[in-house]
What does this fold into?
Amino acid sequence: MKYGLIFGGSSYEHEISIVSAIVLKKKLQDSIFIFIDENREFYLIDKKDMKSSFFSSFEYKKSPKIYLTKEGFYQKTILGRKRVDFDVAINLVHGRDGEDGKLPALLDFYGIDYIGPRIEASVISFNKHFTKMFAKEIEVDVLEYQVISKESVEPIKFDFPVIIKPLRLGSSIGVSVVRDKDELSYALDTAFEFDDEVIVEPFIEGIKEYNLAGCKANDFIFSIIEEPKKSDFLDFEKKYLDFSRNSEIQGANIEKSLEDRLKEIFKKIYEPLFLGSLIRCDFFVKENNIYLNEINPVPGSLANYLFSDFETVLEKLSRNIPKEKSIKIDYRYINSIQGMKNR
It folds into this structure.
């Protein structure tokens, strides 16, 4: 199976997406790399150039530009155009463009098979408020929360400490733990740099956190369950420098009953909304109750480090990509109107 990894994008998480693609270069030998720059131009990147400095120095601009059209990416040549050859695309764009529905909409519109969240899944998981409403609708518990807009003068309804997050951003960017009123203004200003709305939740000391990745390819395929080692919360460095080191992660030491419950909740979240995706769900466990924290529809490096045989997982998923129903347009209604007019 040959993959077309699409990464970059116009997003605060642009650089994280580059790191993800570089990590997967080592995991997926038969791949080509499609980079989206901040201006949303597509570039075909040679595998040997998949280094962070190639992008930070803007050397990527010397790479061939490509464009997206019906059933594929194409490169202009002297003789016309040449199709960029791959079997299945992988949406590896974190944050805006990749996780908000723009890239999935383009790929669906042009009939390109891809691994990643579809439009509805993107919309729901990109917005933390929508995620919580979705979870409650399918009877999955979430912690109490409050949404505050930039223009709002609404006071925080929780006792300190609280955790404040931009509403539409991942990767722990702009996230703060606020322990008293004196820290609140700075934390809100930091979060509002990235979004006009923030979500506030009570920060619970010592709460257990577990991450589970997976997908459905005929049957469900699950990763190991990870228990992140953290002090306050899983910050940027812990999340993204760890997976870039590609170190082996040990599964959480939990009872089988808790493992089974986490997997059953994952299934409720995943199907049917996230079919065609490899996602990671982050859970809290408090007093034996499980709460959904976040859905990561395009997890860092596709959470490859949580699987013992990542390539096999992707190949199975690639063979179970959902297909959009073909609609035949026969103009029966218009023709019947025209027929009535001509009588």
About this structure: The longest strand covers residues 208-217. The two ends are 58 Å apart (CA to CA). DSSP finds ten helices and 16 strands in the chain. Residues 162 and 202 are 4 Å apart (CA to CA).
